[in-house]
Amino acid sequence: MSEEVTAEILTTHILELARSGRRLDGRRPEEYRPVSIEFGFVTSADGSALARIGETAVVSGIKLEPGKPFPDTPNAGVLTTNAELIPLSSPTFEPGPPHPRAIEVSRVVDRAVRASEAVDLKRLCIAPGEKCWTCFVDIHVIDHSGNLIDACMLAAVAALSRTTMPSRRFELGEDAPLALAHLPMETTFCRLGNTIVVDPTFEEEGAAQGRLTIATDEVGHVVAMQKGLVGAFAPGEVKELAEAAFRHGDKLREAVRGGTRP
User: Fold this and answer.
1) Is the pTM of this model over 0.70?
2) What's the confidence (pLDDT) of residue 9?
């Protein structure tokens, strides 16, 4: 049996299950997979975390280095986000130029961090117009079992929440925690026929007709949205999904708060 036929049979089965409110892994449509975070996973980074959502695993490392501010923001530091989808994490990823999915993940995570003002870039200014901190947020997917955006966001925010500014290393004073003003989280939903499920698996993403990611913060703001695939979501559905995103986001934020600084 060819891979195409096998994929078609699996998609049909997933959609049939969804019609009856069931999923391949036994979850309900509104049920998220187990979440865990290991802080300080990369000892050479200024902050790091390994985040797992089900079998999906993502490592994020933070590095802070002195640099020059952009001319249009002389009183602010610089934040740059980069996601890598390494081939060993999934047979769908190959060596070479950045995968389109990696570019999307980088942009969606970066947008949510910026829109929520989680990192106060003005606090990263060292000398206006001359020197600032550049914060590199590196994200590496090591096991792709679905829902990369949520997992990458969780890993990035978890790593940022345990980041120490290495001032002594650059003779800029005493080290201090990088204080986050907010804890933004992404929640992703997929449409499977007339059923919408949260936290889709790799197989469910392959069967999905539409994807919607909603970023929330802890004070009741929807800070960003990302629509994917071709299927549509009605306004009423978007409102309901936003309410669900806050509930799931709060649980993800509790996972970040639950750890201690390494």
Assistant:
1) yes
2) 87
